[in-house]
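Cytochrome P450: structure, please.
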Amino acid sequence: MVPKSGAQNLHELYISVFPSWSTILAATCLAALLYALLKSIYRVYFSPLATFPGPRLAAATYLFEFYHTAIRADFPSTLRSLHKTYGPIVRINPGELHIVDHDFNMQHFTSKNLDKGRWYYQLARNALAGLHDHREHKKRRSLLDPLFNGGMLKQFNPSIDEHISNFHVRLADSARKHQPLDMSHLLWALMNDIVAHYLLGCRLDGLMVDDLSLVAKTRSYRALHIVSYLRQWPLNFLFEIRHLPLIRSIVPLTGIEDLVKEQTNSFFSPSTMTEKPKDCVAERLHTEYAVYRAQWRLAFECSEFMISGGEALTYNATHVLYNLLSNPQCLNRVRTELAMLSGEYDDVWRDPSVTDLPYLNAVISESIRLNDTAAIRFPRESPDPIFYQGKLVPAG
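Here you go.
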């Protein structure tokens, strides 16, 4: 018998010590499945929320919510059916309870001392909307509130007047030519122009674009819906690779973040010859608050304001217009009230007293109350334990 060479012995030893890649992959998959199974068992039977009613699949995995949100698109109706089956408190995912009890909700969830759910706000981290801790959120908001009060907005009135004039020109031109006009596109262009001017001191001039559908493509409302569908997944890593082409199409902040960086680069330029935007929110944030001396933080915060401000204003204005057109009596009454103004101004929006018209204000307030501006739901976490119907709801 021919003895084996040293090389053959080493090769056999390598094979016995280091398994094949297929074996490693199979073992990894098996370990992942075992981990998922054990975690699901813990969530269903041993979690602090295990005693609360609800479907076991919802208690075991976030995929239950993902399925009804992203695939079936029936999560609200599913919640209603769950409450009919299980009562006023239902466990809707491994870490969340849904409560339909007006008195309880008014007592506990009107408090300003509630934290935001870490899982659901992971795609807005570092911005005001994504701050988990309510104390940190309150501190940051106290810096920002003075920049959005009535006094600041009054100083901006001449610029608002200019943008509304451009809006009026587009409407009048369309009426003169008897051409249909998509009002949601027009309102988006108006609101985006105003918000960009107020925040960044720049002129987007979306109202000057002939084809307003091109401007409407910059909206992020649908993208925010997509993000809400993906909240059940650990997506923090998306922010590290958010400038890749594929990720840019998923995370709506990237394009607006580029615009904000372009407009605020001058704040971080050492050259004194560089012209800097003045009398805008970004300039005030950078000069008055040390937390916004970091370019990435300033860009991210202003990007959030651009998205939330433009989308909320457009959605509310569209809803008000729709309700007025759907209710001719209300529309005629608004017109009658506007006709009672003094007439000292050529254009009605320039009259300061237009903001004091009671019926117009009531129409706007009621329309905002009835609509649902939010693209997503906003779960909250209590930092303290809560008792409900004799059961302890643990903190968080």
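Notes: The chain has a mean pLDDT of 78.
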